[in-house]
Every structure is written in C-alpha cells, then in structure tokens.
Design goal:
Elements: E1 2-11, E2 14-24, E3 29-33, H1 40-47, E4 55-60, E5 63-64, H2 69-76, E6 79-82, H3 94-104, H4 110-123, H5 139-151, E7 157-161, H6 169-184, E8 188-192, H7 196-202, E9 205-210, E10 213-218, H8 220-225, H9 230-238
Parallel strand pairs: 3-8, 3-9, 6-7, 7-8
Antiparallel strand pairs: 1-2, 1-4, 4-5, 9-10
Helix pairs in contact: 3-4, 3-5, 4-5, 5-6
Length: 243
C-alpha cells in the first residue's frame, strides 16, 4: 500500500532522512520506533506530503505521490492523520469537529456528515460527548475525537504521530485501546510511538530509526526478543525493555 525507496529529506545542511526503504502492506500495523529526532515523524509527514522529499520515491497504492498540490490534497483525503497535539477546532463541538471534513472536503450534506460523525464518535466510545467543546474534554477524549475525525473521512490508511505523547498516564490506555480496535478490524496503520508494549503486541512490522536511518526492521518477535543490531539492543535497554 505504501512503498518507500531511498527516501531522503534535508533541512538545510541537516539530513533528516538518509535512504529510507520500507513497505507497508494493506491491513498491516507498522510501528516506527527509535530515539527522539531520529526521523520517524519526518517520514510520516513526508508520507502525506506535508513535507517534500529531496530524493527517492514514496508510492501510495501503486502510484508515486504527486507534486501538484491539488492532486496531493486528493491523496490526503485517503490518509487519516492523527497528531500528538489533537489539532481540534476549539470553537466547534466534538460532533462538529468530526463532521467538518466530510462536509467541507467530501462535500457531504450536513445531515449525512453529522450521521457519519455520530457513528465515528460512538466507535471511539464518545457518543455522549458529541455536544461538548474540546475545553470540556480530557486529553484522552480529545485525542479520541481526533481519531474519529480522521476515520470520518473513510481513509485507506491511518497515520499516527506519537498520539499518546501529550497525554497523562491515566488516559493513554483509552487511546491505545481504540488503536488496537482499529488494528483488529484490519485498518492499515503507520504508528510513530514510544509505547513499546503497544508496538510489541499490536505491530505486525517494526522499523527502528536512528539518525535518519532504519537500523533494523522486522516482525516484533525479532525486534523485541532477538534484535540483530547493537543499536536496537542499546535503544531498548535504555527504555528498560525486558519483553
């Protein structure tokens, strides 16, 4: 579904990505792990064209990502993106936040957009929060609204950029449970995460990043139980990972 070959990204003299090769197949959960600043979020932002690349190729569903902004916007409608900072409209209710995309981008009638939004809020366990504004929601609830908003666009793939990093420990589980539910339903997902237990239990494929490169990739059993590179072992040991 998504194919990265030799992807290079630079910011001035700083090379953020150095020749990334990775495949994401339909129905897979691919987790990107590694230290902060290693290029994981940059790759995610390049995936839906929020950042351009200087070298290599990214293909989505068999076609190279377009450079034309209008064509790129059409591709983005098939990729749901969930950020670490929620990015909800503070002046809109939870229902209106979720209905906004279907109404303005997909050109759905208001009633249809609201029905879709209600269904997605129910899916993430927030049907009773539809009339609430973001300020009246916990961080975990806001992030679940953000997930519902992305799902309302009926995407082919979901991109998660550290979706729990801004949450307190009590609400992290709420979001991870929703993500696991999506995985169980067969949603294709690319997840940048520091939640190693989630990656180990839910991920189908793990890519370990360091300094803009993938230093190791493979199934979770390999990465967490029998890593083949010293850098992966060092990274996991610093997290206190014991399996």
């Amino acid at each position: 579904m998504i194919r990265y070959r030799g992807v290079v990204k630079r910011y001035g003299d700083f090379q953020a990505l150095s020749g990334i090769d990775l495949d994401v197949h339909a129905g897979e959960v691919v987790c990107l792990i590694g230290p902060s600043g290693s290029g994981k979020s940059t790759l995610l932002r390049c995936t839906n064209g929020l950042e351009s690349i200087e070298g290599g190729d990214i293909e989505f569903e068999g076609t190279a990502l377009p450079r034309d902004e209008r064509e790129l916007r059409a591709v983005r409608t098939r990729m749901g993106m969930v950020f670490q900072s929620f990015e909800l409209f503070p002046h809109l209710t939870a229902l209106a936040n979720v209905a906004e995309g279907p109404r303005t981008v997909l050109r759905k009638h208001a009633a249809e957009a609201n029905r879709r939004a209600s269904a997605m809020l129910a899916k993430v366990g927030l049907a009773d929060k539809a009339p609430n504004y973001p300020s009246a929601l916990s961080g975990g609830q806001q992030q679940r609204v953000a997930i519902a908003r992305a799902l309302a666009m009926e995407p082919d793939v979901m991109l998660f950029d550290e979706p729990t990093s801004a949450l307190d420990p009590e609400t992290i589980g709420e979001v991870l449970n929703v993500m696991k539910q999506l995985a169980d339903e067969g949603m294709t997902m690319v997840v940048v995460t520091h939640e190693m237990t989630f990656a180990r239990r839910v991920g189908d494929w793990i890519a370990v990043f360091d300094a803009g490169r993938i230093v190791e990739q493979g199934p979770p059993e390999q990465i967490f139980d029998a890593p083949t590179t010293e850098r992966t072992r060092d990274f996991l040991s610093h997290l206190g990972w014991t399996g």
